[in-house]
Amino acid sequence: MDCIFCKIIAGEIPSYKVYEDDKTLAFLDIRPVNPGHTLVIPKAHAKNIFDVSPEDWAAVTESARIIAAAIEKGVNADGVNVMMNNREHAGQLVDHAHVHLIPRFKGDGLKLWPQKPYPEGEAESTAEKIRNALT
Ligand code: 5GP
Ligand code: ZN
Q: Is the distance from the beta carbon of residue 29 to the nearest atom of ligand 1 less than 6 Å?
């Protein structure tokens, strides 16, 4: 399979690894938002959050929890953003599921996405659509 993250797992492409266990691997993003920006991935190939198994997702999120603390301590950050892009129009460029851990520093100037209030009645109808999709 032509997947760069599977090649990183296999050691065919070099990476700066920071953590590994039987189900997950974490390594530095090659183009960091800030130094210490880390990607946590399942070792079993899965395209995105819609595709990953519950067991692997649980393992990835637990690794992310452990590594977030290590990043904050290790690079003396003031906070950490946990982020995941799923599918092309959500900004996913590499089709192997990965969670971004991005150390943040006071005054680093990065902005989060813009937010806006719901128009009248739209919150209730939107919540209902999601509740219905769960059943
Ligand atoms: P996405 O946009 O899919 O959420 O993020 C993919 C991330 O993978 C990007 O932040 C990009 O810098 C990183 N990336 C792409 N290719 C490589 C690579 O070969 N090695 C490493 N370490 N990171 C990569
Ligand atoms: Zn892969």
A: yes
**H or E segment and range at residue 40:** strand 38-42
Q: Please state the domain count of the chain.
A: 1
Closest ligand to residue 43's CA: 2
* Mutation choice for ligand 1 from 94, 102, 110, CB with most ligand atoms inside 8 A: 94
Given a contact cutoff of 8 angstroms between Cβ atoms, the answer to whether 85 and 91 are in contact is: yes
Q: Count the Cβ atoms, other than its own, within 10 Å of residue 25.
A: 21
Distance CA 123, CA 101 (A): 30
In terms of residue numbers, what domain contains 108? 4-134
Domain harbouring 38, CATH code: 3.30.428.10
Q: Report the catalytic residues.
A: 98
| pLDDT tens-digit map of 22-81 | 999 999 999 999 999 999 999 999 999 999 999 999 999 999 999 999 999 999 999 999
For the record, the structure tokens of 19 come out as 């953590």
Rounded to the nearest angstrom, the distance between the alpha carbon of 119 and the centre of ligand 2 is: 41
